[in-house]
Design goal:
CATH class of one domain: Mainly Alpha
Shape: globular
Strand content: under 5%
Order of helices and strands: HHHHHHHHH
Number of strands: 0
Radius of gyration: 24 Å
Helix content: over 70%
Structural class: mainly alpha
CATH topology of one domain: Serine Threonine Protein Phosphatase 5, Tetratricopeptide repeat
Number of helices: 9
């Protein structure tokens, strides 16, 4: 009986040691928040290169992976919305950016791009509502330049007849949406870089 108890005790100890080893290995393998941000940022930078090289498939994969790794930053969402606009997937872009707007309800650029997506999909009322929200956000943030752009879009939408815009207008809005996303991502990258620097200017 004593031998049996000793044997059980040894098994329990070994099982505990093995469990702690597995937990330590999991903790070592799982990246922390800072590492996830860095990985996601590198994927975004790669996606921009892919976009310049017109490799849309790789660009989409990079952005989707970036969102999965670090879903709390808006720049990958904005760029993914941009790509969907570029390939003229307007309904898909509108659905995706509508979801993004729920995730980032205080991001004026998201609502601006959502408005453009809905406009090009021929959905005037959702486009007007998104543009109005964009104006409100930028006004609250005292971002005058972007507020004026959103206000101009809103004014245009109010005067626009129902239905989809002309091909030439679609091209103009594609360019505006793409530039908004690139600018937003670039500003976010610059902000992240500044945040990672010490007051002396070194990492």
């Amino acid at each position: 009986m004593k031998k049996f108890l000793v044997f059980l005790t040894v098994l329990v100890i070994l099982a505990g040691c093995h469990g702690r080893e597995n937990q330590q290995q999991s903790q070592q393998q799982a990246p922390d928040e800072g590492q996830r941000r860095d990985i996601a940022r590198k994927l975004i930078m790669k996606s921009l290169t892919d976009l310049q090289n017109k490799d849309l498939k790789s660009c989409l994969t990079d952005l989707e992976t970036s969102i999965k790794i670090n879903p709390s930053e808006p720049e990958a969402y904005l760029l993914l919305g941009q790509v969907l606009l570029k390939v003229q997937e307007y309904d898909h872009a509108a659905d995706f950016l509508d979801m993004t707007a729920k995730t980032f309800p205080e991001n004026g650029t998201v609502f601006y791009m959502l408005s453009i997506s809905n406009k090009m999909a021929g959905k005037k009322l959702p486009a007007v509502l998104a543009a109005r929200r964009s104006v409100e956000i930028f006004q609250t943030q005292q971002d005058r330049d972007n507020m004026l752009k959103s206000a101009a879009l809103l004014h245009e939408l109010v005067d626009m007849p129902d239905g989809k815009p002309s091909p030439a207008k679609i091209q103009d809005d594609n360019t505006a949406g793409n530039q908004a996303a690139v600018n937003a991502a670039g500003n976010q990258m610059a902000g992240n870089a500044d945040a990672n620097q010490t007051p002396g200017g070194t990492d």
